[in-house]
UniProtKB/TrEMBL annotation:
Superkingdom of source: Bacteria
Keyword Isomerase among UniProt keywords: no
Annotated EAL domain residues: 204-458
CDD domains reported for this sequence: EAL (cd01948)
The keyword Electron transport is assigned to this record: no
Keyword entries, A-Z: Membrane, Transmembrane, Transmembrane helix
Record's protein name: Bifunctional diguanylate cyclase/phosphodiesterase
Transmembrane segments: 36-56, 62-82, 89-108, 139-157, 177-197
Pfam family of the protein (one): EAL
Provenance organism: Methylophilus glucosoxydans
Stored Gene3D superfamilies: EAL domain
InterPro entries: Cyclic-di-GMP_PDE-like, EAL_dom, EAL_sf
Amino acid sequence: MPHFKNTPLQLRLVAKLFKGELFQFAQDPHQLRVKLLLAIAACASIILGGAWSVYYLWQAKWLLMAFNFSLVILSMLVVTMINAGRDRLAAIFMAHGLALIISAISVFDVPLPGVVRSVHMYYLPIAAGSSLVFRKEGIYLRVIFPLLMLLGCLIFGSSDIGITQASLIANPEIRAVGAWMNNLAALGVLGIALIVMQSDITLRSGLYADMREALAKGHFCLHYQPQVDAQGHIFGAEALLRWQHPEQGLIPPGVFITAAEETGLILPIGNWVLKEACAQLVKWSDHPHLSHLSIAVNVSTSQLRQPDFVQEVQEIVTRSGANPGQIKLELTESMLANEVDDTIQKMRALQAFGMSWSLDDFGTGYSSLNYLKHLPFEQLKIDQSFVRDLLNNESDQAIVDTLVNLGKHLKMTLIAEGVETIEQLEYLHSKGCMKYQGYFFSKPLTVQAFEQLPSPLLSPVAHSTSGLF
């Protein structure tokens, strides 16, 4: 289809949905589902709301016209939010906006002899869509809101409450036609929502089975991205999980990490990653040019919350024979929001064992500096989102300057992620950040390719003017 890319977003998504191609091994399947349902809801609301607005404008039913036209405005605002990358806000805004507008219109959709109430049927696709879109949210959005939609459908469907004043409601003839249209539209959108929900269940079930097989048959592997100092010497590496699927090829972590978290497979996978990293350190200990390297391993929220997390890690490291001082455990800032005291105890226990801790993605969440100073981090990583536009964005520059000063005051080693250009490197160096990681030096590599890297990575001649390397 040569012009497929020029078709509307919702039509492309629906076409792929019915072909069974939409979610399989997508980078972020859940986010794609959210976009799909929002696109369908926005499209349906614009068509139906626009058509009824024109009709009620012609009939001079101003209140009904305003309610239906508000559907168009709501959908346009949601589309704007999606284009701005604010999918979560768009979903919340769309769900609650539709609920309010449907409730208001249902008040004017009172059953009459020969005319059934129909607008309340839209509560059903809102409930179904919300249960899928908000399945990762808190109890209100995930459970209470969909139940309220079902309750609304029950109340309006089994009663005749509402306004019956002839000047405010639609004519019985058009309402009879509208009942068919509303029921068909509501059931159609509900059907699509159910198909998406079924694909969600099928995909997660398939991913779970594939991941179990991958773990058993050794389809997972580790790639290593070098971490370098201001002289270009490699001092460590970050171990990054990859899945070499026998049929689909290399699957990015964004596809399966969330599913692993939800199914609990992240626990055995996380233990496997630590075992592999430890085994690699033991192998490198016999190589003069590699024996000094440390390996950074990411720790998931599920792992950290396990009561026996400390004992499990200590046992893995001890059995491997690796030096605990060469293992760096990385936590993301979002993991510090809950159970801080328990996290501190576990971190200190492993620190006493000889391991060190690194704080990843700092500045992207909402952690409190008041308790951050009590956490035994030895390394602070500047998130790549601040490095990406460092040269053109004054806010990013201010954040980086602040993080450098913070690292110095808290006596933490600073490392910048996502370094891709010499200009970024020079700026970071000038501000006092002396350790780096990013594609400017190397992408994540297989262990064989990593071991072939030169050190220093770049020639000193290339940066003689800046004093780097």
